[in-house]
Amino acid sequence: MATETNPPKRVTTRTLQKMRDRGEAITMLTAYDFPTAKLLDEAGIDMLLVGDSLAMVVQGHDTTLPVTMDQMIYHAEMVGRAAQRAMVVVDLPFPEGQIEITRSIEASARVLKETRCHAVKLEGGAEQAGRIEAIVTAGVPVMAHVGLRPQNIHVDGGYRLQRDTEKLVNDAKAAESAGAFAVLIECVPASVATAITEAVKVPTIGIGAGRDVSGQVLVTHDIVGLTSGYTPKFTRQFADLGRGLKDAADGYREQVRSGGFPSDQESF
């Protein structure tokens, strides 16, 4: 067991590649704050994603587009400080991954300089190969993101299953050739994810992409019942913290109103 003098061994890009080569499943969950990241890290989750999904699940927006780079850095710093073992990946928010490449490099560098996180995630495949290569050349590990791309929602006309096997395989291969250490695959048929995984040598992390990938990622709020709206088909609720939080608030309200809290033992 890890102690203060014997800290847990950090998960790195090399760790993930070895896990993929051994056929050992990789686990990844989102985190946006210190206490959540600390608990997930202690639970042995391999990778934490400071996702631009925080725009929806934390800030209450309808899409991921409103979140800013400064806000991503703010949340990433907390997560990076909490994680002792997990590798922490930070999304490049819109439009940091779409405009001039030098700005993408600067944004990626901020992640490493201003937080304790270890890599960035960039939406796109073949058309982003030059950007991926430039960021990696600058010294920042990059996870590519193919399939459904939430930052592209207005171009795609909504959140839709992506079925073009040839395009998606080419996207993943181009990202790998450009230096991406892993490829996230979102919302594709399982057969497509299998084809992508067989076409590349780097780890593939699926979300709504079936079982035949190197690992899985989900939004933590979804798996613990802290959602306030639509829950995707591909997620599973493993606990109901939402109900627990409501019950605790109900109990607190009633005890305060009835005079039961605070008691003599809870007073000075």
Automatic annotation (TrEMBL):
Gene Ontology process terms (BP): methylation; pantothenate biosynthetic process
Domain of life: Bacteria
Cofactor: binding details: Binds 1 Mg(2+) ion per subunit.
Residues annotated as catalytic: E186
Positions of 3-methyl-2-oxobutanoate binding: D52, S53, D91, K121
Reaction equations catalysed: (6R)-5,10-methylene-5,6,7,8-tetrahydrofolate + 3-methyl-2-oxobutanoate + H2O = 2-dehydropantoate + (6S)-5,6,7,8-tetrahydrofolate
Bilayer-crossing regions: none
Gene Ontology MF terms in the entry: 3-methyl-2-oxobutanoate hydroxymethyltransferase activity; magnesium ion binding; methyltransferase activity
Keywords: Cytoplasm, Magnesium, Metal-binding, Methyltransferase, Pantothenate biosynthesis, Transferase
Top EC class of this enzyme: transferase
Listed EC numbers: 2.1.2.11
Subcellular location: Cytoplasm
Record-linked Gene3D superfamilies: Phosphoenolpyruvate-binding domains
Keyword Signal set for record: no
GO cellular component, one term: cytoplasm
Task performed by this protein: Catalyzes the reversible reaction in which hydroxymethyl group from 5,10-methylenetetrahydrofolate is transferred onto alpha-ketoisovalerate to form ketopantoate.
Assigned protein family: Belongs to the PanB family.
Oligomer and partners: Homodecamer; pentamer of dimers.
Protein name: 3-methyl-2-oxobutanoate hydroxymethyltransferase
Organism (species): Aporhodopirellula rubra
Gene label: panB
